[in-house]
Amino acid sequence: MNMNKPYRQKVINSYLNESGYNKFEANEFLNFIIENPDWNKDVYKLFFPSSDKDLNEHGYQKDAWENKKLKARQFTHGLTIQVEKPTIIKGDTVAKIYTYPKLISPIEDRKSGGGYVVVDPNDEEHQHEMGRQAINYLKNFKKKYGSYCEDINVSLFDFDTFLDELISKAGHSLKQEDVI
How many other C-beta atoms can be found within 10 angstroms of the C-beta atom of residue 29? Predict the structure, then answer.
């Protein structure tokens, strides 16, 4: 079975609908798969192959379970949702499609074990979190690759202008400690 992004998207959507959760936590996802082996046989085999020899009399060994949790988190990587919003362009109202991450992991929840929440693009806290993560990602990108770009004569002026605009619009409510 090809576990490409559209397939993984369907699996996570199905899991959230079937389980009734509005948050993705690797432990809950794995427990759901164990308790419902017929829900999706391909996904069950991915996480619990028949050759899995990590079982002991108390269930999975801690290292093996942590590895499965990491695999579950990676399974959700890159998933998105598309939202249609009415937008006014030159006096006409048109439907514009926006793509958002399907799941975000709020930074402030990570110390307590975290988890991923399903993005609601209209939720102010989610907007705040996406802004914080976008700013951090772009700043880290520049730190990591900025010198390379300059070395091959790629100007970062437009990048800096873009980042400044993002900070002024999305970052207006961010505290300094929110931005890494």
Answer: 26
The Cα 118–Cα 38 span in angstroms is: 24
CA distance 66 to 73: 11
Q: How far apart are CA 121 and CA 113, in angstroms?
A: 24
CB neighbour class for 70 (10 Å; exposed up to 12, middle 13-18, buried from 19): exposed
CB 179 within 8 A of CB 136: yes
Structural domain boundaries of the chain?
1-119, 123-180
Alpha helices in 36-152 (DSSP H): 41-47, 62-75, 124-151
In whole angstroms, give the CA distance from residue 102 to residue 26. 15
- Residue pair 156/142 in contact (Cβ under 8 Å)? The answer is yes
CA atoms within 13 A on the CB side of 54: 13
Position 146 confidence tier, pLDDT thresholds 50, 70, 90 = very high
Residue pLDDT, tens place only, 59-84? 666 678 888 888 998 998 888 887 77
